[in-house]
Design goal:
single chain, 618 residues, Beta-Lactamase, Alpha-Beta Plaits, 4 domains, six-stranded antiparallel sheet, 20 helices, 52% helix, disordered N terminus, GAF-like_dom_sf, PucR_C-HTH_sf, CdaR-like_regulators
Length: 618
């Protein structure tokens, strides 16, 4: 231990500064206090401060030895953490820890009052002290409380002992209590300065790492590497969800004692992934100030984790989430700063991927505009262009399409990438592109694919779209395309199926034959024209029935369905034949709808059939 020497000139100055009439003993005590205060404040390191305290007491008081002990209540021990005993050169074999229940240290710490042992070698109240006193040859002992804790947060007590038996009067006790107080102040000051240094060092390190992190992001580092750097910046377990790539990047385990890093990574990417995704989608930004307890079921037990979740937002769209798993319910100021800087860097990282995604989506959309519009000069030319985008037009491919309500969503590019990520589990070469308000899905097929395989493929795509969009889609199934010229009519067929599905309120898988001749009507007239036709044909009869309490439309419908046979129609309606004739006559008289006319009958039948198809679908 490197301890500073104190010159006698300081003591002389201290003594001479006192009033001339002060007693010599009093003047000496004041000088001792000044010298001790100077010595224990030389260093700010807590451990060094403790060594200086015990050294200063031995040098500047009449006590021959001094020590400081910490109370380890968990282990039930009083443990020596600093000692100065110039008269004992060989400390080997001497005890440095004692039973706390038999030690006066516990009483001193709890009562905050000193304990004086007049002669430790003969006092039977504290047998451990008696044993130590005999081994080190000391007699009088004073144990005093310290108003400070050690680096582990344990209470400390300060003790002095003398090699002879001495009288401890009130003045001596006041001197020792003052020394203990000075020591406590020095320890607390040292701890504060050490904490400030540590904070400054952490802040500097965080700045350096943050600069390095941004440099790596701007230099094009992978998301996995960037996440690794973020994990090194924070004392908490880190998990990043990259929504663009649809994958988790996992740092260390939040509780290594219960689950190791490998098991934790498998849990996050497997069984817990849905729970984490649901949590990330339900959270708004709180800048890491909102903590919630998350229960994650592991293989052997449930993990209870304090969790901070922050969405990562680019261009108004949530493209990922950053999870911090902490031991505490709140981050300290420095951790909060580092976490916010890390969030910014990760947003920049995902923004790069988002921009690339947007550019690729636009390029693919432009290509399909050309392909589906038939605007290419030759098959080799369009095949080569497709190849540059990773699309193989030389393979037979299944064309599918679905449509969300309204126009294409604002986050179409992000949704497109989520679909691509999911479809890659079905087929690595699948392509997705928005064409207006419809989403095109192109899945290259194996030459050996059968009809059963095709149906299974369509069912998996439908389930995937449902899981991503949150609604069962109307999924149009087009024909298999084998040449560039096949794509335009196949796409037109898919769009036609989507129009019919919208007209009739249908969802689920749609094929060309599902709507029969109505597909020709929609193609010729358009869905809005058909809706207007139904309205114009049937609304007047609906309004008349509603106003007069009649069933003219129902009677006409059953009459037409029964092949215009009065007897069978009246039986189906449960009325007399004359009643049916009266109703049909009233329909003609009041609304000029003559069911005897073949054209009128067909017009009514078509309108009612269209209405019923839409109701059944709904």
């Amino acid at each position: 231990m490197d301890l500073p020497n104190l010159t006698t000139s300081g003591e002389d100055t201290a003594v001479n500064a006192l009033p001339a009439g002060a007693p010599t003993e009093y003047r000496q005590r004041i000088a001792s206090l000044r010298a001790i205060s100077s010595l224990i404040n030389v260093s700010s390191d807590p451990a060094t401060v403790l060594d200086h305290i015990v050294f200063a007491v031995c040098q500047h008081t009449r006590w021959s030895a001094s020590s400081i002990m910490a109370l380890n209540r968990t282990a039930g021990l009083s443990e020596l953490i600093a000692r100065c005993d110039p008269h004992v050169t060989d400390l080997a074999g001497l005890s440095t820890r004692w039973n706390l229940l038999r030690s006066p240290a516990l009483r001193v710490a709890e009562t905050r009052a000193p304990v004086v042992i007049a002669d430790a070698q003969v006092d039977a109240a504290f047998p451990d002290y008696r044993e130590d006193a005999i081994a080190r040859d000391y007699h009088t002992v004073v144990i005093l409380p310290m108003h400070a804790t050690d680096s582990l947060g344990r209470d400390m007590v300060f003790s002095v002992n003398a090699r002879t038996r001495i009288e401890v009067d009130e003045d001596e006790l006041d001197l020792l209590l003052t020394i203990s107080h000075l020591a406590s102040v020095a320890v607390q000051r040292g701890k504060s300065l050490a904490a400030e240094r540590q904070t400054a060092e952490r802040l500097q390190r965080a700045r350096e790492i943050n600069i390095s992190l941004l440099e790596r992001v701007l230099a094009g580092s992978t998301t996995a590497k960037v996440t690794e750097i973020v994990a090194s910046m924070l004392p908490h377990a880190v998990v990043l969800f990259d929504g663009i790539a649809d994958e988790f990047h996992v740092g260390g385990s939040p509780n290594p004692a219960r689950i190791n890093d490998r098991e934790w990574a498998l849990l996050v990417k497997g069984a817990a992934s849905s729970q984490l995704l649901e949590l990330s989608q339900s959270q708004g930004a709180s800048e890491f100030k909102k903590c919630q307890v998350l229960h994650i079921q592991g293989e052997d037990a449930t993990l209870e984790l304090k969790t901070f979740v922050e969405p990562l937002i680019v261009d108004g769209h949530t493209v990922g989430a950053l999870f911090l798993f902490s031991r505490e319910a709140a981050l300290d100021d420095l951790e909060l700063l580092i976490a916010q800087e890390a969030k910014f860097a990760l947003c920049v990282q995902l923004m790069r991927a988002y921009v690339q995604l947007h550019g690729k989506a636009n390029a693919i959309a432009e290509f399909f505009d050309e392909l589906l519009g038939g605007n290419w000069s030759s098959d080799p030319q369009i095949v080569r262009r497709a190849g540059r985008l990773g699309i193989d037009l030389t393979r037979p491919s299944q064309l599918l399409a679905f449509q969300q309500s309204g126009s294409a969503p604002d986050d179409a590019d992000y949704l497109q990438q989520k679909l691509v990520n999911g479809l890659h589990a079905v087929n690595r070469d699948a392509v997705v592109s928005w064409q207006g308000d419809a989403c095109l899905i192109l899945i290259p097929l194996s030459a050996k694919v059968g009809s059963g395989d095709g149906e299974m493929l369509v069912a998996r795509v439908r389930q995937l779209v449902k899981s991503i969009t949150g609604a069962d889609p109307a999924l149009a199934v087009g024909p298999v395309c084998r040449e560039p010229k096949d794509y335009a009519p196949a796409w037109e067929g898919c769009v036609q199926l989507l129009r019919l599905a919208k007209l009739f309120g249908r969802s689920g898988t749609l094929h060309a034959g599902d709507f029969g001749a109505f597909s020709l009507l929609v193609s010729a007239l358009g869905d809005s024209s058909l809706e207007a036709y139904v309205e114009q044909t049937l609304s007047p009869i609906d309004e008349y029935d509603s106003a007069h309490g009649t069933e003219l439309l129902r009677s006409a419908e059953v009459f037409i369905e029964e092949g215009c046979r009065y007897q069978s129609a009246s039986e189906a309606l449960g009325v007399h034949v004359s009643t049916l004739r009266y109703r049909l006559g009233r329909l003609n008289d009041a609304l000029n709808v003559d069911v005897g006319c073949p054209d009128v009958r067909f017009s009514l039948w078509l309108a009612m059939r269209l209405r019923h198809m839409k109701k059944r679908a709904g």
